[in-house]
Amino acid sequence: MPSSHMQVMAFVTTTCALLYRHRQRQRPAGHQRHKLSVLMQQLQLLLLAGLAGAVGYARVKLGYHSAGQVLAGAAVGSTFAVLWHLSTMRLARPYFSQLAELSARLGLWFRDTLAYDDVHKAEFEACGSAIGRVKKIE
Question: pTM of this prediction?
């Protein structure tokens, strides 16, 4: 039986790596990002991969799974991550504008953040402008 812990860790790690790769490929030619930002993103991916490896090692070391079961779990999780990435990017993303019009998205805070170069910076700026609007109202 494949390790479900490794399935989850491999899914998350692979999904993050695929999203990082997607963001890098969609940048316009000549677009330069701050080197520290790129380094931090790569460090986060490296730490996530290290955490996944540590979980796999712990599952074997604690005797819950064999190495083969851990590797099978990693393969299953990575495979599903690739399938999920392909299905969302190729099948669902072209219809995102129609999905965003559904009333259900309001309760889910459903939005497309792939267009932002730096999601954290965009959220910070949106929060700052919202605070400015509240202060003007008072």
Answer: 0.71
